[in-house]
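ok trying again, last paste got cut off:
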Amino acid sequence: MDIPVSTRATTRTRPESLRHSRTWDAGVPCIAEARDAVDALLSRARLAPERRAVQDAQLVVSELVTNAVKHAPGPCALGLELSADGDELRVTVTDTSPEPPRARPPDPGRVGGHGLHLVNLLSEGLEVTPLPHGKRVAATVPLTGAHGG
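nice, full thing came through this time. structure:
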């Protein structure tokens, strides 16, 4: 007796990561709008990371966008990408300056100039990629577990 056998190719698909992007062509971007984009993306993913992780991600976004606005003429762009497992948020900021960001020496008495130190502390490092008309600065912020920087 022949038993009918059907073959079906099964492919296991990995959930797609969620993304958000925003470009500011003219004028100064609203830093609060950039921070709010983190909340909006996490809401779309229906994730509820610890409040501290969300605040860390918002601070990294705020610092990177502020640096782009402060040190680069012209347009800038923000990209957010949530990993498929929801464990980390990749933050990218593109601007028109070819100069890489430079951390200033720590000085507790100085007002300002501490942003890159905070980004390094709250993320898994800073990556700078030269582009034909500027650069892309990226940092990955953990959303789960403890991060010691």
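cool. The chain has a mean pLDDT of 81. The CA atoms of residues 80 and 91 lie 5 Å apart.
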